[in-house]
Automatic annotation (TrEMBL):
Family the entry assigns: Belongs to the multi antimicrobial extrusion (MATE) (TC 2.A.66.1) family.
Gene Ontology BP term (one): xenobiotic detoxification by transmembrane export across the plasma membrane
Topology class, membrane: Multi-pass membrane protein
Protein name: Protein DETOXIFICATION
Keyword Transport (UniProt): no
A single Gene Ontology CC term: membrane
NCBIfam families linked: matE
Main localization category: membrane
Coiled coil: 616-643
Keywords, in A-Z order: Coiled coil, Membrane, Transmembrane, Transmembrane helix
Location in or out of the cell: Membrane
Transmembrane spans: 135-152, 164-186, 198-221, 227-252, 273-291, 311-337, 349-378, 555-576, 596-615
Amino acid sequence: MDTIDSELHEPILQSKPPTPETVSSELEETLSNTEISNFSRLKSGTWIELKTLFRLAAPAVVVYLLNNVTSMSTQIFCGHLGNLELAAASLGNNGIQIFAYGLMLGMGSAVETLCGQAYGAHKFEMLGVYLQRSMILLMCTGVLVMFIYIFSKPLLLALGESSSIASAAAIFVYGLIPQIFAYAANFPIQKFLQAQSIVAPSSYISAATLVVHLLLSWIVIYKLGWGLLGAALMLSFSWWIIVIAQFVYILVSDRCKYTWTGLSWQAFSGLWDFLKLSTASAIMLCLETWYYQILVLIAGLLQNAEIALDALSICMTVSGWVYMISVGFNAAASVRVSNELGAGHPKSAAFSVVIVTLSSAVIAVICAILVLALRHVISYVFTSGSTVADAVSELSPFLAISIILNGIQPVLSVFGKEGGKHKPRKHTSHNPENTSNPAKRSSDERPTSVRRAALVDRRSRSIDDRDRSTSAIDERSRSTNIAIVDRRSRSTTRSSIALVDRRGTSALVDRDRRSTRDERARLCSSIAIVARSTIAIVARSTIAIVHRAARRRGVAVGCGWQAFVAYVNVGCYYIIGIPLGAVLGFKFDLGAKGIWSGMIGGTFIQTLILIWFTFRTDWTKEVEKAKLRLDKWEDKKESLLTD
C-alpha cells in the first residue's frame, strides 16, 4: 500500500533516471573468455579497443589543433601591424596568457577524472554536479588571476622589459581578461563531454569558431582600427563562442539529457577535496610547462643566441604540433580507462593502457622518421635562412628522440593518474557483474561502493596529466612562434651557428691543451665522469622520488597520484633535466644540443618511472577505490531550482 501511495504522489513531469548509452562490456567479456585461444582474444580485443580509441582520439586532436591555431592567428594579425605589436602580442599570448591557460587547464582536469569514472559507474547525475563544482572553483581562481592581468605592465617592467613593449603588451593583456573566465568554463565543459565520449561536437564548434574568429579579427583590427586591444578582445570573444556553443549543446542534446539535470546545491559540497585534486593537477601541469620555458631562457644565454634560439624554437614548434597527437590520445586514454574502471572492468582498463600506449608510440615513431627524412628542409617553412636550416638539421636527431618520448610519456601520465598503487589494502572481492546489473549491485552494496571509489581515484590522476600535456603543448608551440617571428625580422644573415659542433668544442679545449688527441681523450674521460655522476644522481633522485611519493599516497583524497606525478616532474625536470642541460650546454660547449640532451634525459627518466608504476598497478583495487570515492561524494541531491 505504501508503494502505491508513493507512486500516486510522484510528480507527473518528473524525469526518471534513464539508461543512456553505457560502457560496453564487450571488451571485458572477450578478454575473460577462456573458451577461445589467447591469440584470438588478443586479436578481437585489440580490434575492439582500436575502434573505440580512434573514435575518441581523432576529434580530440582536431580540437587541440584548432584551438592552438586560433591563438596563433591572433599573433599573426598583430604581426602585420608592426614589430612592436608583434612583440606585445607574443609576450602577452605566450607569457602571461599561457600561465592562465595552464593553470585553468590543470585545475579543470579533475572533471575528466571524476566524470569519466562516474559515467562508467552509471552515476549519470553526478557528472553535472562535478561540472558545476569545477566551474565554481575555476571562476574563483580566475578572479585571482585577473589581478595579474590588471597589473601586467608593472610586472613586465619589473622583469626588465622596455616601457614601450610593456605598455603595448599590457593593452593586449587587458583585452584577454574575459578569456580567463572563458577558460574557467570551457575546460570543465570540455572534460564533461569527453567523459561521455562526446568529442565530435567540440571539434565542429572549434572549426566554426576559427572561421568566425578570422573574419571578425580582420574586420576589427584592420577595418575598424582597434589594433592590439581589438585583437585580444576578438580572441576572448571567440573562446566565449566555444563555451556558449558547447553549453547549448549540453542543454539541447539528448546525449546529455541524463548527465545534466540542472543546477544543484550539491555543487557546493566537497569543494575542499575537489580543490586539492584540482590544485595537484594544476601544479603537475605547470611544472612541465615551466620546464620548457626555462630551457628556452637558458638557450638565450648561449653565444650567438639568436641562431640557437631560432633553431630551438623551430624544433619546439614541430615537437609541439606532433605532441598534440599524443595529447589527443591522452584524452582518449583517460576516458577509456576511467569509463572501464567505473564500469568495474579491470581487464579492459589494463588492456586499454597497453593498446593506447603502443598506438601512440607507433605514431610517434612514424613522425620521428618523417622529421629525420625532412631534417634539411623543415626550417624553410619558418624561415629562408640557410644558417638556421643547418642548425635545425643538427638538432633534428634530438627532436626525433623527443617526439618518441613525448608519444609515450603523456599517455602514461594519464594512467599514472588513473592507475594506482602500491600499498596493499583491504578490499572486497570484485565481481564485474555487480556493476552492470543494477539488481546485483543493490544486493551487494558494499563491494560496489568500494569499486566506485577506485575509479575516481585514477580518473583524477589521469585528468591532471592530460591537461598538463595539453597545456605543455600549447605553451611550447606558442613560445616557439614568438622567438621565430621576432628574430626573423632581425637576423636573416647572422654569423655562424651558435650550436657548437665538434669543431667548436675541440677549438675551445685546444686553448688549454696541446695535442688534439690528448684533448679528445681527456674530454671523453670528462664526459664519462659526468655521465657516471649523472647516472648516480638520477638513480638517487629516482629512488627518493619514488619512496617519498609512495609514503604520501594517502595524504588527501583525490590528490595521491597527482601529487606523485608532481614529485616525479620536480625530480626529473628540475633536479635532472635542467642542470644536466646547463652542464652539457655551457661546461662542455655543446650549445643547444647540450640543452636539448638534458631535456631528453629528464623526460626519459620520467617515462621510465611512469612505465614502472603504471604496469605494476593492481587494476582490481583501482576499481574498488574509484567506487569508494564516487559513493563518498554522492551525498546530496537537492536542486537549486526546487522549492
